[in-house]
Amino acid sequence: MNGPTIAARPTRPRPGARTWVVLGVLITYTVFAGRQVGFDISTFWNVWSNPLWEKFWPVPWDWVLDWHNVLDPLLETFQIAVVATLVGCGLALPLAFAMSPLTSPNRTTMVVSRSVMNVVRAVPDLFWAKLLVTAVGIGAFAGSWALSVFSLAVMVKLFSETVDGADPRPLEAARATGGRRLPVIRTGVLPTVLPEYVAYGLYVFELNIRASVVLGLVGAGGIGRVIEAQRQYFRFDRVLGILLLVLVVVIVIEQVSVAVRKRLV
Amino acid sequence: MIRFNDVSVTYRGGVRALRNVDLRIDDGEFVVVVGLSGAGKSTLLRALNGLVPATSGSITIHGTEVVGAQSAELRAIRSRIGMIFQTFNLVNRTSVLNNVLMGRLASVPAWRSTTGLWPATDTEIAMQALERVGIVEKAYVRAADLSGGQQQRVGIARALAQEPSVMLADEPVAALDPVTSRQIMGDLRRINQEMGITTMVNLHFLDLAREFGRRLVGLRDGEVVFDGDIADVTDETFRHIYGRAITDDDLLAVDDEPTE
Amino acid sequence: MAAGPTTGTDGRPPAPTGTASRRMALGALLVILVGWSLTGLEITIDRLLGAPGDAWDIFRRMFPPAFAEAAERGVVGKVFESVHIAWIGTLIGALISLPLAFLAAGNLAPAWVRVPVRQLFNVIRAVPELILAMILIPVTGLGPWAGALAIGVHSIGTLGKWATEAIEGIDEGPLEAVAATGGRWASGMRWGVLPQILPVVTSQWLFRFEINVRASAVLGMIGAGGVGSELVSQLVFRNFPAVGAVLLMTIVVVLTIDTVSAAVRRRIIRGAGRAPGNGTDGDRNAAVLADLTGLRH
């Protein structure tokens, strides 16, 4: 028989001590955190006997579809989202270029802009809203501000990854012609990343519509204001109606932006 | 013994992949199936283990009917037929041994295979399968870290771990270089001879077919247009099967000496 | 026309006109949309110019942050409570969403199973954690458990969607191989699918954890445990130095978790992507990010 020579069987590699330590730490922490938050499995079945459920139904559609009650604030939400998306994405464009090693004018700009954006992102969105409401007063104006900051943070995160991953060769070619920094970026990088920029912008717009639902909780205007008021009256049927309406709006916007993105990317 | 009796396969959309195929393959045979791409080679193999259901006709393996078999029955049939794929179909992110143990899935209780607590006897079978294709030393290496030829050997070991009576190989060397291709075909031939496993291999390289085949089946547009001993095959036979002249693209490597 | 290079401009194609006019129309549409929005929101120039000053004023008053006072009030414990809530919530979401994702994947489940599960994900995603927490509080009472559960339920939506996309991106060869060996459906899932998606899915869980830390901080604002309650109460009293301390502590914890989690995610994905022919790091990062944000269509 001229079959292959029989090699010795390898011994099964045992998971190292580090694996066990990591596993042990994770399990211990999970048990500890579970106790801290008061994990209670019975909630999973008790939740069905929630006294609130019957308050959810039936949805009073004639109230929900009323212009003054819901549709006008919903329009306000839409307007907030438009302004915030534009401001956020507009500021994100230069910032992303400042943050990328490919296009940044110098190291200091890059490090500073990256650190600032990380800190901005570390503050939860509603914290921003609450702070800005305190600063500029209750209403849609504060909401626009808060969502602008939120849009900026998300957009920079998404878009700077794209700039980092852009093909450096056209940029090199543009540089080789001896152009100044901005024209070089304009012709060498912008065309390749623009489709993604617009796609992410549309995505951020979707996120803004979703986020506006909760902005009202801190007094930042839009449809969230109505939700908060109805919640305080325990009119959960109206809350559900508004949520369903927002869901429809979000789905429509999502469909449109998916269609646009498909044509772009 | 395998019997195809007037087997036709029509895909949804109306494409007729097999037309009235009659074949009889005896135990221990080594059959090479050739034909242009789209001639129905792949469908022929997949009809045999029910991955593609036959539209009409009858297929029997050792007297068991494949056509119309229900899920438990079909799993039992498949468990005795090993299959080797053009793209290897390994799980790249797990170890070679785990890949080979997948060949034991039909014979191991579900709770054991799901939790990964494979019985020692099944691990032993998998190890022996790896020894037979000569890569047992790679047992605990991730499949992704192997070369193409080694990956296909894992594919063969997985099929062997089923302890099959029939082995189906669908273009097993199409993704490999000429030298490795000959080694893999050599492995299949050796396993066929040593273990007496009935083997059906789809090939599109005609010189490989001639070198390793014993019996040749030619398919054209889903019909069997040649079935005979490889010794009787001439270039004219291939022209007949392909319906066109033979070019260099149909040969693995004209000048290459078979390597040992 | 003569062959070869011409000296005149006759042979040059005219600049395409369609794109320019389409761009103009789009630009005009955008300007109108923004103008309409700005007037609708009653954003006037003087408000716009006044706002940065107001914001800066508050920011200035936060310094120096009153760490001692905040520590005395147990803010540190509250920040960590937010982390605990996020961890437990993410785990609940992960454990429920993973099996559901198998039922939502186009390559594994028939339409009559897949469509309702996907709709479930969409509906869950549409309901913010804050609303979920409000609904849960009557059952759980005020406190962190309401927050953890709200985060868990909400995470099912996104984690389920992401995992579904990961499953739909698998190589289906191993599944066919399992079927060919006579394995059951469950075996195919366990050995054909799970090993392929596990690295991506765990990094999705970690990414969601990062998001959930922020979300759980917010949940405190309505009494569902964590640091949010501290921020609200200090802002009500306009105790800005304490607000500054709360914010800074939150930022430090969030940034630390982001950094550690991102490093772990990178390791997981890199380990999984060791297969040859995987493209550049840039490609891979973009792909992972697209996976994580659900942007891939």
Describe the overall structure:
The complex is a heterotrimer of chains A (265), B (260) and C (297). With 265 residues, chain A is mainly α. Chain A has a single domain (61-264), classed as MetI-like (MetI-like fold, Orthogonal Bundle). Chain A has twelve helices and no strands. The longest helix of chain A is centred in the N-terminal third of the chain and has 33 residues, at 67-99. The model of chain A has no long low-confidence stretch (mean pLDDT 84). With 260 residues, chain B is of the alpha/beta class. Chain B has two domains: 2-80 and 164-250, P-loop containing nucleotide triphosphate hydrolases (Rossmann fold); 88-160, no CATH class. Chain B contains nine helices and ten strands. Chain B has helices spanning 41-48, 71-79, 96-101, 110-115, 120-132, 148-161, 178-195, 206-212, 235-242; strands at residues 2-10, 16-25, 30-34, 56-61, 64-65, 81-84, 166-170, 198-202, 215-220, 223-229. In chain B, the strands form two sheets. Chain B has a six-stranded mixed β-sheet, sandwiched between helices. Chain B has a four-stranded antiparallel β-sheet with strand order 2-1-4-5, covered by helices on one side. Chain B is globular. In chain C, helix 4 (75-104) packs antiparallel against helix 5, helix 8 (173-181) packs across helix 9 (185-219) and helix 9 (185-219) runs antiparallel to helix 11 (240-272).
